[in-house]
């Protein structure tokens, strides 16, 4: 299991989006292998924890009850990522001087992905925007589409430099 933080941010849209939440999730367990210029990150989708709602760019940890967090997590695993059928999310890439050029395997599909990063003070940090539709994942909808997720997820990471 790798050290560091791996956060995902989701964004709401739709007619009733004002009653929904932009969310921050944390990957609680992931494996990171670095061999020369090659990098592999492996995530179990069940290791996603809902931290809470984002308000004005900051986490509001008391914004969701534990039951709400469990319900959201179950929905993500069962309906969005279909974790029972696709138990791993895998990124494989090659370091190209400040970016990783690679492939992300998500929900049974692979697509190219470029991940920019910075090395500073013994840390490797960065963020990348994913469009889940590239992997065949349609934006989740509730209330007949009046609330839905945008086709955009930000992945932000902060890891110790290997």
In summary, what is this structure?
The protein is mainly beta. Helix content is 9%, strand content 54%. The strands form two sheets. Strands 1, 2, 5, 6, 10, 11, 12 and 13 form an eight-stranded antiparallel sheet that branches. A five-stranded antiparallel sheet has the order 3-4-7-8-9, with no helix packed on it.
Question: Looking at this structure, what is the CATH superfamily?
Answer: Lipid/polyisoprenoid-binding, YceI-like
Using only C-alpha atoms, the radius of gyration works out to 16 Å
What number is the mean pLDDT? 88
Which regions have little confidence, pLDDT < 50, spanning 5+ residues? Answer: none
Label the overall shape.
globular
Q: Structural class from helices and strands?
A: mainly beta
Q: From the 3D coordinates, which CATH architecture would you assign?
A: Beta Barrel
Question: According to CATH, what is the topology?
Answer: Lipocalin
Largest sheet: 8 strands, antiparallel
What's the end-to-end separation, in Å? 13 Å
- SSE pattern, N- to C-terminal: EEEEEEHEEEEEEE
Count of individual beta strands: 13
The tally of helices reads 1
Proportion of residues in extended strands: over 45%
- Proportion of residues in helical segments: under 10%
Regarding CATH, which class? Mainly Beta
Tally the structural domains.
1
């Amino acid at each position: 299991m790798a050290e560091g933080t791996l956060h995902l941010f989701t964004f709401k849209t739709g007619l009733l989006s004002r009653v929904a939440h932009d969310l921050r999730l944390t990957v609680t367990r992931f494996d990171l292998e670095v061999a020369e210029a090659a990098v592999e990150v492996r995530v179990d989708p069940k290791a996603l924890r809902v931290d809470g709602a984002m308000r004005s760019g900051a986490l509001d940890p008391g914004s969701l009850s534990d039951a709400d967090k469990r319900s959201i997590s179950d929905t993500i695993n069962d309906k969005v990522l279909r974790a029972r059928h696709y138990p791993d999310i895998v990124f494989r890439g090659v370091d190209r001087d400040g970016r990783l050029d690679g492939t992300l395997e998500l929900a049974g599909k692979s697509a190219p992905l470029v991940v920019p990063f910075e090395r500073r003070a013994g840390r490797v940090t960065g963020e990348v925007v994913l469009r889940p539709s590239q992997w065949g994942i349609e934006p989740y909808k509730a209330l007949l589409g009046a609330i839905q997720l945008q086709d955009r997820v930000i992945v932000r990471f902060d890891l110790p430099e290997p």
